[in-house]
Design brief:
There is one protein chain. This protein is mainly alpha-helical. The protein has a single domain, classed as Rossmann fold. It is 36% helix and 9% strand. It contains four helices and two strands; from the N terminus they run αβαβαα. The chain has helices spanning 2-7, 33-43, 58-70, 73-76; strands at residues 14-17, 46-49. It has a two-stranded parallel sheet with strand order 1-2. β1 (14-17), α2 and β2 form a beta-alpha-beta unit. The longest helix has 13 residues, at 58-70. The relative contact order is 0.17.
């Protein structure tokens, strides 16, 4: 991560946790949500939790990446804005 930031200081990094679907199956998180939020906050990253199995939040992740590349999609494409990031009640929505 530091190497990327040193080589490309304007590069925006995104933290993405996977296997979100396992939470509904009773599997315990490998990393506590609070630790993820703290790390994302300290490093200035956006954080997302996704499931490729169910597709949950995958579109939000891709929209966030696209916004980082070309600016806010809701302004340029007429799509609704992304939900708030790292809100305690909607952490899994990004």
């Amino acid at each position: 991560m530091r190497e990327v930031q040193n080589q490309e200081p304007t590069c925006e990094l995104i933290l993405c946790g996977t296997k979100l679907d396992l939470l509904s199956e009773g599997v315990t998180r490998a990393v506590p949500q609070e630790a993820v939020e703290e790390f994302a906050s300290k490093t200035g990253m956006k954080a997302f939790e996704t499931s490729s199995k169910t597709g949950e939040n995958v579109e939000f992740l891709f929209r966030a990446v696209a916004e980082g590349i070309e600016g806010p999609l809701h302004e340029t494409r007429g799509t609704p804005p992304l939900p708030p990031l790292l809100s305690p009640l909607s952490f899994s929505c990004y």
